[in-house]
Design goal:
alpha+beta
């Protein structure tokens, strides 16, 4: 797992082509701590607003779903994987993709019914219900084949 940044930072770019957004990316390196979910939600909301201003109204229409899924993915990374390394939001070719990277190789799985309760256990169902697709990819250390964590992604159709 990479070293956590001291503050939340975001880099956002938007490219428009004939009034339709073709690419918009925000990369967020969140501070680890109690406020990480709130900070990431705020920065993702700003990225969604930028997409809307660039002509992609559907990003605004899906904002509530996207923000709830982002909250779930970041909370899970903090709770089960030691924190978040990076959050990436990208709009490209009619899809908004959210990626949450962490330093754990453990793949998210829905717990058994008896393990669900007040403290959680419904995250996979929530992400499945709100996102059009989601999954997990392994990350590898640069120049090696050694895994160094995973990225959990969720895609939202914008059209």
């Amino acid at each position: 797992m990479g070293q956590p940044m001291n503050t939340c930072t975001a880099t956002a770019t938007a490219t428009t082509s004939t009034s339709t957004i073709t690419t918009a990316t925000a990369v967020i390196h969140p501070e680890q701590g109690a406020e990480v979910v709130r900070e990431v939600r705020k920065l993702v909301a700003e990225a969604l607003d930028a997409c809307c201003r660039a002509g992609c109204e559907e990003a605004g229409n899906r904002a509530d779903d996207v923000l709830l899924v982002v909250s779930e993915l970041v909370t899970n990374a903090c709770r089960h994987a030691g924190g978040v390394d990076e959050v990436r939001v990208q709009v490209c070719r009619g899809e908004l993709m959210v990626e949450v990277a962490d330093g754990s190789d453990a793949v998210p799985a829905e717990p058994a019914d008896e393990a669900k309760g007040e403290s959680g256990g419904y995250g996979c169902q929530l992400v499945t219900a709100l996102a059009d697709r989601w999954g997990v990819t392994s990350r590898t250390a640069p120049g090696t084949t050694e895994t160094c964590g995973k990225t959990v992604y969720a895609g939202f159709a914008l059209g």
